[in-house]
Design a protein that fits this description.
The protein has 348 residues and is an alpha/beta fold. The protein contains 14 helices and twelve strands.
């Protein structure tokens, strides 16, 4: 093998790391730990690799028709609908999308972003993994790559963001359950350390507080924001001495799991227990019972995020803007009857 033919792949194989990690080292990224950096640099010296920075810069600055889309949980139907909305706009504008799922791994997120940069993407739309920090976006902003963060905002990140009005949505949903006569209302699902969960929980708590209801931590049950997480959350909630009669769920997927868990106990959602979700995914309307939920219009959110990115790409300027989109409560059957009716039923 001659020196002129040594590639990044050869370096990655010799160092026992991914191609994306080698690229991060070549770009002097602060995201690589010193031990890994030393191992990669040793492989570079041993193989005699020469980094053509001029060619790399040319690849980065050349106008491409490729954009990257990075999401934290593609198993959640919300993100599938979000991606569909982005595709509608990007495809009509003549762009090809690279889609990657991080599975809530910050390390995986860094790798896929580095890989997308190698392919010369013109911009990125990212729903960040848990634990993402503002510093993770510095290499992108330093390179002048437009970025739009969706769903989860990252404090201090100097990039554009598009989020939903989580506080208002959760507050209105909780107020609706209160209006039906519920006072023991649980908040089920979601990771407590994310901004989205914090905003939704605050709306829930404030609605209960203003109504003079129970705002203690006992009725807040965190779990993975998944269907299985919903099952686990309702199982724990129903073991409480003073059990809830209704729940605001972190998202629709959790709500579907809560409905599964209720039926496993012989309880019928919407008849024996009020259930409200958040997102309004396609399945919400066709579920049995149809799910009452806070609609954030995921496809519409995806279209708007794509439009924000295209605006930056087409203008040639990276100007950060923050947009909070409105939400609305969609009342269907799962929220249940008034408490005076439910009081005549055995919910045990």
């Amino acid at each position: 093998m001659t020196k002129s033919r040594v590639t990044v792949v050869d370096i990655a194989r010799a160092a026992g790391v991914s191609k994306s990690t080698v690229s991060l080292v070549l770009q002097a990224s602060p995201l690589v730990n010193e031990q890994t950096r030393a191992k990669v640099n040793a492989a570079i010296r041993e193989l005699g690799y020469v980094y053509n920075r001029g060619a790399a810069n040319l690849r980065q600055t050349a106008a491409s028709k490729i954009v990257g889309i990075v999401v934290n949980d593609l198993t959640n139907p919300f993100f599938a609908e979000l991606a569909v909305g982005m595709d509608m706009v990007m495809q009509s504008a003549g762009f090809v999308q690279f889609l990657a799922n991080t599975g809530e791994s910050v390390d995986r997120q860094r790798e896929v972003i580095a890989s997308m940069r190698e392919h010369g993407v013109s911009g990125l739309i990212i729903s960040p993994a848990r634990g993402t920090e503002a510093a993770d976006f510095k290499p992108l902003t330093a390179a002048g790559i437009p970025v739009v963060v969706v769903v989860r905002n990252i404090a201090g990140a100097k990039v554009s963001s598009l989020t939903s009005d989580n506080y208002v949505g959760a507050r209105e949903a909780t107020e609706h359950l209160i209006s039906l006569g519920h006072s023991r209302i649980a908040f089920l699902g979601g990771f407590a350390d994310t901004a989205v969960s914090g905003e939704r929980m605050q709306g829930y708590r404030d609605a209960l507080k203003d109504a003079g209801g129970n705002v203690g931590d006992a009725l807040v049950v965190n779990s993975a924001p998944s269907r299985a997480g919903g099952v686990a959350a309702i199982e724990r909630a129903m073991l409480l001495p003073d059990r809830p009669t209704a729940a605001l769920c972190f998202n629709d997927t959790v709500a579907f799991g809560v409905c599964d868990g209720l039926r496993a106990r012989g309880l019928e959602p919407g008849r024996d227990f009020g259930v409200v979700g958040f997102d309004d995914v396609i399945e919400a309307e066709s579920a049995v019972p149809a799910l009452t939920t806070v609609s954030v219009d995921p496809q519409g959110m995806g279209r708007r995020a794509a439009q924000m990115l295209l605006k930056q790409i087409n203008s040639g300027r990276v100007e950060a803007e923050a947009i909070v989109s409105s939400v609305r409560l969609v009342v269907r059957q799962s929220c249940g009857a008034a408490m005076k009716d439910m009081g005549r039923r055995n919910i045990g």
